[in-house]
Description:
This protein has about 300 residues and is mainly beta. It has a single domain, classed as Lipovitellin-phosvitin complex, beta-sheet shell regions. The protein is built from 4 helices and 12 strands. Strands 1, 2, 3, 4, 5, 6, 7, 8, 9, 10, 11 and 12 form a 12-stranded antiparallel β-sheet that branches.
Amino acid sequence: MKKIIIPVLALGLxxxxxxxxxxxxxxxxxxLQPGTQYLYSMNTKMEMTQSAxxxxxxxxxxxxxxxxxxxxxxxGTNKKITVTYDRIAMQxxxxxxxxxxxxxxxxxxxPELGMMGYMLHKPFNMLVSEKGEILKxxxxxxxxxxxxxxxxxxxxxxRKQLATSFNDSSMKGMLQQSLxxxxxxxxxxxDTWKRSYSMNMSIMSVNMDNEYKLASVDKGIAHIEVNSKLxxxxxxxxxxxxxxxKVDLKGDQKGTMDVEIASGLVVNSSLKxxxxxxxxxxxxxxxxxxNQDITITAxxx
Length: 301
C-alpha cells in the first residue's frame, strides 16, 4: 500500500509546485521599456439584432485593427507611447448594405470606406501609468482633420462619423481593454481585484465594472479570468437624425487574458460580450441584442 501512496503524494506536491501558487505574490504592472516596439492586434466581431414593427434586422460588423506601440520615453513610472495604425480592415453586412475595407487590399475595398486609409501610418501619442490607466491621448483629432475631401457633403459626413468613433476620448476607451486591468498591489493565485472605466462604442457610452482573478502562473505568464458587468446608453449623439434617440443597455463580459509578467504585455486575450437593451425613438421601443467577440494579441517587434 505504501508503494502506491508515496508516488501519489509526490505527484500532488509536484503539481502544487508547478502552479506557483501557495501564497507567492507577483507584481503585475505595465513595464514596457523605452526603445522597444510592440505590435498589438485587436479583432472585433459584432452581431447586432433589432426588432421593430414585426421585422428583424441583423447587422454584422467585423474589424481588425493593428497598432504599433513605440515606447518613446518614461516619465517617472508612466510610459509615453507613440501609436501608429499599421492595418485597418472592416466588413459591414446588413439588409441595407454590404461594405468592406482592407488596407492590405484597397483595390477590392468599397469606395465608401476608402477614407479609412488616411489613418494609416500617422502617429498619435498616449501616456500610460504602470497600472495601465491611460492618462492622456493626443493627436487623433489632427489625423481626422487631415482626412480626405472636406469640400464635398459625402466627405464631410464621413469625417464626422469617423470623428465620433476615432477621437481621442473614444480611442482611450478602446485601448483600455488591453491596458487598464492591473491590480493596485501584488497578488497571489486565487486573488481577485476590480477595475472600472467607461468606453465609447461608436455613438454611445458604456460603463464597465470588471473583476479579474489570477487563475494560475506558468513559465512567466499570468493567466487571468475576466468577468464584467456592462451598463450604458443614454442619448445618442453624432448625427442630427439621431438627436432624439435614447439607448438603454445591460450585459456581461467574460473571458481570459494571458499576461507576460516581466513586461505586463497582454500576449493573448479573448473576451465575449452579450448585451441586451432598447432603443427609444419616435414613441417606439426597439429591442436590441448585441454580441461581440474581442481578441487581442501582442508581441515584441
